[in-house]
Amino acid sequence: MKIIRTKTYDEMSQKAYELVKDVISSKENPVINTTTGASYDGMFEKLVEGINNDEVDIEKVFMMNLDEFIAPREQSFTVYNYMHQKFYDQIKKQPKEIALLDGSLASFEEEIARYNKILQANKRDLQILGLGVNAHLGANEPGTPFDARLFLADSDDSTINSTMLYYKVSREEAPEQMLTLGLADMMEAAQILVTASGTRKAEAVKATLEGPITIDCPASILQNHPNVVFIIDEEAGSLLTKY
């Protein structure tokens, strides 16, 4: 695992952008599966700028996402809305293909089957992940088996609180379930990028990087992947003793 420590969130975002740009430029038809949220707001801003300045060839990229809230797509907090408002609606050229999960359906068996076919047909060059305050990845909360595949997940209270904080919604408005790639799906990517920022993430960062590999810390599974880049700012890495 490659650990990159930065002083600030902006520097972390720049490093993440540079990694994504490198993957896009070095692959003929890159497949990138991404997450959303505060950890990547800065990276998406820089990626939009890079695309619009013709520094990044997004037209050869297959972009997909790893999860989606169970809610109507028009809700402010959905992955669908995030990706359009912060990325797809901001760029002058579009990816070759886009794949998004749909959490607005009455039944999810067919949606899971549909998305699994997409995953199986498109080997991911890069899996972008955010680290939850309880060390979750996607919606794989503590206790999720390491062999989990795309499934409907219940969110822990800490995850719901993070959603409330970021999207400024009430407890009643906040979603409690997500469709999410399982940990086994994430580990199949050729390369994994993880970022973490702020003191809220410090304990999760320490457990992920320096703790035992256990389902109590879902992100600890990353220790078993051969090509992970973990970018953390000064505050997120404040509890580390080995890095």
Question: Mind explaining what this structure looks like?
Answer:
It is a single chain. α1 (9-26) packs across α2. The chain starts with a strand and ends in a 10-residue tail after the last strand. It is α/β, with parallel strands linked by helices. The protein has helices spanning 9-26, 38-52, 79-88, 109-121, 157-167, 183-187, 202-210; strands at 2-6, 31-34, 62-65, 67-69, 97-99, 126-130, 151-154, 177-180, 191-196, 228-233. Helices cover 33% and strands 18% of the residues. Strands 1-10-9-6-2-3-5 form a seven-stranded parallel β-sheet, covered by helices on one side. It has seven helices and ten strands. The model has no long low-confidence stretch (mean pLDDT 96). β2, α2 (38-52) and β3 (62-65) form a beta-alpha-beta unit.
Q: Radius of gyration over alpha carbons?
A: 17 Å
Spatial sequence of strands, sheet with the most strands: 1-10-9-6-2-3-5
Provide a count of the helices.
7
What characterizes the major β-sheet? Answer: 7 strands, parallel
Question: What structural class do the secondary elements suggest?
Answer: alpha/beta
Briefly, what is this?
The protein is of the alpha/beta class and 243 residues long. The chain is 33% helix and 18% strand. Helix 1 crosses helix 2.
List the helices and strands and how they pair.
Layout: E1 2-6, H1 9-26, E2 31-34, H2 38-52, E3 62-65, E4 67-69, H3 79-88, E5 97-99, H4 109-121, E6 126-130, E7 151-154, H5 157-167, E8 177-180, H6 183-187, E9 191-196, H7 202-210, E10 228-233
Parallel strand pairs: 1-10, 2-3, 2-6, 3-5, 6-9, 9-10
Antiparallel strand pairs: 4-8, 7-8
Helix pairs in contact: 1-2
